[in-house]
Write a structure and sequence with these properties.
Radius of gyration: 21 Å
Largest sheet: 7 strands, antiparallel
Number of helices: 12
Strand order of the largest sheet: 11-8-5-10-3-2-12
Distance between the termini: 36 Å
CATH architecture of the largest domain: Sandwich
CATH topology of the largest domain: Jelly Rolls
Number of domains: 2
Length: 338
């Protein structure tokens, strides 16, 4: 079962004026990624952070006074070995404005927004607020970084897109995260990853509809969708993809020159990401490494093991062991400053 750790509040007089900024940022940085905190009022600043973990998903509930939270380039640079995370903020009360990559998303109470912790962002909360933050490693979503970038800083309301399905589920999950045994938590983490992947796909499609691009951009998007739908087929190849889209293999490769990856490399990367995500899930009925590899199109176990190690730095069995060892950690940290 999840562990909850509670600490006492920090007394007002224990924080000197010249240490307040560092104190606030340090307290909020007990959430999955460090941020800078600047209060938006002249009154004393109060807040509470409560964190839990479900497998590889970190769930934090932040309640605080009006403030700006900044994930700066300097903070990102201090974590050269940190794994990029995708975050989703669910606004329980109060309003929030998320800015990333030059886009601005106004998130009303009951809405959500997605962001990428590997790039700078700002969140303005102009009034006291409460929000649930969900973070998980970006590579476990099995979606290209390109799609995450296009989906970030987009608000989803309770009646929009995936909102009617995703928002109630995330709200219940945040409220009950501490109560799940580890095997249940691991399975729920897999559901969160799948839902976030669907959210990113939905946001990318919506953005493409609002911002029509060139015919080539739309064709690249269709090719990516086709690859995603046939990822588990060991016969998937550039030749087959070209035939399905009535183009030549040469033209297919030219389409992806601007993407910075070859078609074959893209297929392998997406397969490896899917395997890594599945291997990170725990449970008594967890499939074997070879079964996971075959499910995602790797016909040769030796080739899969070499490719996985090259991408993740460890063999697939060690990856599974490391992910399982990390599961179940959580903490709760109140903070207060005047």
């Amino acid at each position: 079962m999840g562990i909850r750790v509670t600490t006492t509040s920090v007394a007002d007089e224990s924080v000197a004026d010249d240490e307040k900024a560092g104190f606030r940022s340090g307290a909020v940085s007990r959430t999955p990624v460090p941020v800078e905190v600047r209060p938006l009022t002249g009154r004393p600043f109060h807040g509470l952070v409560e964190s839990h973990r479900l497998g590889y998903v970190r769930i934090s509930t932040l309640e605080a006074d009006a403030a700006r939270f900044s994930r700066t380039a300097a903070l990102i640079a201090r974590e050269p070995l940190g794994e990029p995370q995708v975050g989703v903020g669910v606004q329980v009360s109060g309003r929030a404005v998320l800015e990333q990559d030059g886009r601005r998303a106004e998130v009303p109470p009951g809405g959500l927004a997605l962001y990428d912790t590997a790039r700078p962002y700002d969140v303005d909360c102009p009034e006291r607020f409460r929000t649930h933050l969900f973070h998980l490693p970006r590579r476990l979503l099995g979606v290209p970084e390109h799609d995450v970038r296009h989906a970030s800083a987009t608000a989803v309301g309770p009646e929009e897109g995936c909102g009617p399905v995703l928002l109630p589920f995330l709200g219940v999950l945040a409220a009950s995260a501490h109560s799940y045994p580890a095997p249940v938590g691991d399975r729920l983490a897999g559901s969160v990853a799948d839902l976030f992947s669907a959210l990113i796909a939905q946001l990318c499609l919506a953005r493409a509809a609002r911002e029509p691009g060139t015919p080539n951009e739309h064709l690249v998007h269709r090719v990516r969708e086709y690859i995603g739908h046939h990822l588990g087929d060991p016969e998937l190849s550039p030749e087959r993809i070209a035939r399905a889209h009535h183009i030549s293999v040469r033209y297919l490769h030219r389409l992806f020159e601007g993407e910075g990856v070859t078609v074959s490399r893209l297929i392998q990367r997406l397969r490896l990401d899917a395997c890594a995500r599945e291997l990170a899930r725990r449970g008594r009925t967890a499939p074997t490494v070879s079964a996971v590899a075959q499910r995602w199109g790797f016909a040769d176990p030796a080739h899969f093991s070499r490719a996985f190690r090259a991408a993740y730095g460890v063999p697939p069995r060690e990856w599974r062991s490391l992910r399982n060892d990390d599961a179940g950690r959580s903490g709760r940290q109140p903070f207060e400053e005047r």
